[in-house]
Amino acid sequence: MDKEYDVVIIGAGSGGYIAAIRAGQLGLSVACIESNPYAAPDGQPRPGGTCLNVGCIPSKALLASSHLYEQVVHHTAEHGISTGDATIDVNKMVDRKDGVVTKMAKGIEYLFKKNKVDFIKARARFAGTQGETYDLELSSEGRSQRIGARHVIIATGSKPRQLPGTRIDNMIVCDNAGALDFREVPKHLCVIGAGVIGLELGSVWRRLGADVTLLDAMPDFLPGCDTAVSKEMLKLMSSQGMKFELGAAIGDIALNGAGARISYRDHAGASKELTCDKVIVAIGRVPSTDGLDLDAIGLELDQRGYVPVDERCRTALPKVFAIGDVVRGPMLAHKAEEEAIMVAEIIAGQAGHVNYNAIPSIIYTSPEAAWVGKTAQELAREGRAFKSGQFPFSANGRALGHGESQGFVKVLADAQSDLVLGVHIVSPLASEMIGEAAMALEFSASSEDIARICHAHPTLYEAIREAALAVDKRALNI
């Protein structure tokens, strides 16, 4: 055995690298192992995982660029600003996105060094145990070594769910990674999957001029959202020109010259075809545990491929933990980070925890949608009596001044105790506003607590206070 560590983390994504840094801060000897180079120019594995390399960060960079372009082309005139004919250099936009990713990846490697974390660029697999130590074999470029771990954190993340019978070539038929590297705007883009990833990627290219159609197998739009949010988002996305076919059963995707022909059945069972020059398959993600050889230590996956864990992310094996997309719960980078901190602190003898009821979710379209806690339909299914207050941004001075007054804030509170149970926001800056709501849930605030807090004026987040006031039918500005 070449070296032994207190903690070895397999995977350097959002959960893995945060676990490594926190464990290093706590004085533990740490190694973090990564095998995926993603799109690194040197072809070497790099940290950050899906989120940094082919997910959250690059998509937000493209969303920012495409939003700015759309504002210049379509929305400056109302402010009295004449811009002439604006053009978009897609290559430069994509290169900027790549630059953001590279900068952040280098930042993570710096943090590893700062916190004395050994970043090992290799593929890891379990090779058994030696007493209370787990034996890991690492392979890279034809060479192998063995290291020991007194604790192991599995943080191998997820991979795109495959559409049966469809080959992803990332030329015409793309997954979420390929969709980030288009070098020209497609004329007609088809997105299979109208969830968060599909909406965000479809928004990027719709803003730049693509004709975008989204096909989704579910009969309802964004079924996990509060119904008020899903209805509002469908209305707003449709008004922007995005086309939706819900309840669509995808049949065959046939390449047709420089494009593709998609055969499907609509919600009524009628056969239809759609021709496009690019296809994005965004039908969700599945846990990634390939090549770990979990059998070598007797660890079994559940029926859906997840690593079974308890509320503290412990597996059935002593001193083996799993976090992030590879375990139950929402596949969110910030959820993985919270689990990472919790596990590192538990290993160090502290009392880490995660409040899974206060993890926010966000869709980064324009406007954005963000929510935390329960939806109205969840509370109704539970039989819990609740009150609801809602306030529109059409009555918010800051939103009107920005020319972006779509959406609302909705607050749900317990009918008896007034405890805040959920907050739902549709707004251009919902992602930045949801933090107040998450804090309210974390500290068990009532809607009255929010209503009694002085909110600066004029601001968008005043709408949260107004919605809290509306819970007791005493909003001041509607």
From TrEMBL:
It is found in: Cytoplasm. Its main location: cytoplasm. Binds 1 FAD per subunit. It comes from the Bacteria. InterPro entries: Class-I_Pyr_Nuc-Dis_Oxidored (IPR050151), FAD/NAD-bd_sf (IPR036188), FAD/NAD-binding_dom (IPR023753), FAD/NAD-linked_Rdtase_dimer_sf (IPR016156), Lipoamide_DH (IPR006258), Pyr_nuc-diS_OxRdtase (IPR001100), Pyr_nucl-diS_OxRdtase_dimer (IPR004099), Pyr_OxRdtase_I_AS (IPR012999). The keyword Oxidoreductase applies. It catalyses: N(6)-[(R)-dihydrolipoyl]-L-lysyl-[protein] + NAD(+) = N(6)-[(R)-lipoyl]-L-lysyl-[protein] + NADH + H(+). Residues 359-468 form the Pyridine nucleotide-disulphide oxidoreductase dimerisation domain. It is an enzyme of class 1 (oxidoreductase). Transmembrane segments: none annotated. Its cofactor is FAD. The keyword NAD applies. Residues 5-340 form the FAD/NAD(P)-binding domain. Belongs to the class-I pyridine nucleotide-disulfide oxidoreductase family. This is Dihydrolipoyl dehydrogenase. It comes from Massilia soli.
